[in-house]
Amino acid sequence: MLPPGPSVPVSGCPVQRGNFSQRGSNNRKKAKAKVARAHRKVRNARNDFLHRASTNLVRNADLIAIEDLNVSGMVKNPTLARSISDAGWGEFRRQLEYKCERYGRQLVVIDRWHPSSKTCSSCGHVLAELSLNTRHWTCPTCRTRHDRDINAAKNILAAGRAVAGGDSGDACGAGVSRQGASLPPSAGKQERSQPVCSRAAAQPQD
User: Cα–Cα distance between 51 and 33 in angstroms, integer?
Assistant: First the structure.
């Protein structure tokens, strides 16, 4: 899973001084400058992490599969909005797209309605319901214990491989689309890798 990015504290000396300083005063200008520096530091730290993570994936994988999350809709949830914005999911996808195109990698985007979290990656059983606050669950068919995010990443990788192999009708490959350049010949010889984050998985190079 992508760790939450750094965020600017809602309280603190610069912000508080900016709120209570007199408009137009030198103290208010100094406080605004400190807040701007804090935001810039956070923004640079987030971008640095995303660039490092995306570059590492593109350098070490022939095939990268991600889920087409509705980020703009998810940030409307007041409980999750700040964490989602801090993680920078939209920017992470943008970086993956142009880097995959630049280096000849294949990026497969899985449809957002694909039940990656509810599908057992071991036997294929699909749960009828799975609440958002359920982070671990046991498959009623094969009794495999799953971490929600790792299980979803395995299913996303399986769906991406199905598309790369030209068979989008597989149980884990329905409703997916292809992006980026053709998969290099070496990709057919790959072994299964561990998922790299909650909503993205990659197939390593030889």
Answer: 27
